[in-house]
From TrEMBL:
Keywords: Coiled coil, Hydrolase. Residues 134-190, 257-328, 379-432 form the PAS domain. This is PAS domain S-box-containing protein. It comes from the Bacteria.
Amino acid sequence: MHQAASHIIVIELAPPDEAVPRIKLLTSSAAAFLGYTEQELIGSPVDLIYAAEHDKVLWRAALADVIAGKEREPGAASFACDILTKTKRKIRAFISLGLLSPRTAYKTDIVLLIQDKPTDSAEDLSTKSALAESEERFRQMAEMTGEWLWEQDPDGYYSYSSTAVTQILGYRQEEVLGKHYTEFLAPQDKADQQRYVTSRRPFYALLSHYRHKDGRQILTESTGLPIIDGEGKLLKWRGVDRDITARMHFQDALIESEKRIRLIIDSSLSAIVIMDAYGIVIDWNRPAEKIFGWSKEEAIGQRLDQLIIPPAQRDAHRRALGHFLRTGFGPFINRLIEQTAIRRDGTEFPVELNFSPLKQGNTYIFSGFIHDITERKRLEHRFQQAVESAPNAIVMVNKTGTIEMVNSQTETSFGYSRTELVGQPVEILVPERFREAHTGFRQAYLAAPVSRPMGVGQELYGLRKDGTEFPVEIGLSLIDSKEETLVLSTIVDITTRKATEAAIRQAQINLAIAQSEIKIAQRIQASLSPSAPIKSNHFEVTGYCLPADQVGGDYFDYFYRDENHLDMIIADVSGHSIGPALFMVETRSAIRTQAGGLGTPAKTLNILNNFLFEDLDKSDYFITLFYLQYDLSNHQLSFANAGHPPPLLLSSFQSECRQLDADGLILGVYKNVVFEEKITTLSEGDLILLYTDGLTEAENADGEFFGLKRVNDILAEHGQETPQTIIDALLEQLKQFCGSESFNDDITLMVFKRN
């Protein structure tokens, strides 16, 4: 006998049972064995791995054994077959099936253990022995991976930890074993994640905040699966944590960097010129208009060398550009250089410039920052002799408040290079709240110039390039000549005592921004939902949304597509605040744009999915949506689903609801998704409840879900009443059940009733 290499795939079996199950999770070794990436297989039908139809027959028989609870019987729930790889290569393998979680009315997780080199007696292997072998393989893989793999007992205490915990959290394995998982969580996660140990439900890519042994905060993506035996008993938890601290910090830093860059470009007093790889101007700011004499409209679309480079230097410019495009190197790229430029009137003058390339796809654009240094050249020598060696920051400005020269200590104190300061207003060194007053003080000084301290009796502050402030003392002196009037400022850093106050002010600013975003999102969300019910002699429809926070991610709508068709939609965007609210605006706009056409629910979902795909693919959000269309002439209801909880239909002559469901992925997973569309006929008195999962998944103090059974009973009891009365009854009993007026998730309800 020889050792068999094993691989694990987890599938999700959702009703109806005859539907082809799809792959939910798999080990990296399973993906490599089949020749795919993990992302290619997740969500795909499991049938694609079987080489022939008779192999699929064996698979379905084994699956039936698991569904019937026979997987522990000798020879049941296992079979030998040919596995088909991505490259169409057949591999003989032995497969054992077992339940990973208790079977429910909605979905069941099933594990497939694949052995690619079965022994001669493989046909007689039991699922129990195969899974026992996988336990040892799991521990071996845990020691080889850089991710933290762990096991916990049913109460959440660690019973196994891979050595990666030392790298991620700084603790040795023995320091973790026997400890409850919440002991290592940061305070903000202790309460939120306490519920997972009792939920018996798997969780995926959960953002967790851990406290490193040295006190640092560590961010991870946590995935955990409950291991449950055939009798429904929770045996243990198994999971993995991936350290994403560096990635999250990088993303935050990148966002802040982009904001600063945009602010500099929008408020810059320097000439900023952007050209494409052909040397054609594609952007030209206002200072460039003033320096060179060409308006933005005149400059864009013209060759840059024809606008600002003297004729004698144009060939060299073109050769340098071509050399960079061929080799990636150039003498004038990413370097601060002094050159001669030409104005529209033909006059030449010295400039300081820097051109930087930015690759976009297979080509480049080049951004240039250009300063007119005519006056600086004239004053530079005189100023350097007088002040360059001074121990304090010295800044020379002209009568308009523009910086003419600075010394090296100014660069040290404020964090700018002199090329970044020269030509800028001196207020760049003054905190924003003092700038308007500073302009008045500067003009008053020029009206009565006397060498003296500035701001006697006041606290003065300087502003560094990095945004930090520091208290200063400033002395003013006048340099007057026939040519111009200059003011020399001597600036001394006196203390850092305002650091705490600055931090408080910044926190207040951040709070104001957050509150503003919430108000904006509230207004956006309020504008999405219909303002009133729709009532007629034949039907009535109304809805209500109760957000968990100040802003929710739910949305509902109903409107006449034409005189014979009523469209109804309910959707749920993951998350809260301004992001989900904006996605709902985009979704509603796309739906309403299609309202004038003849689209069916399935076609509308297909168009909507393709329209939102790019935005959703680039974000961390997803959308579930259910779409119904009621034909008033024949009372037929067409519907399609994009991963949303199925609505409930209660007939007037029945006491049990049935679910309206159709196959369809959540929006934004793939392009060109085909959504199943179904049709049913409504009788008089029939009513439909559309809801988001915040209703059924609301929990009471004992951790019990409100559930579909309670919803069904409430609908049966109040089915003869109006839609609004039904909604009121649902909310009232939900609040009584939870013992609260607020909930952890958004709750949205919509009721349609045929009269």
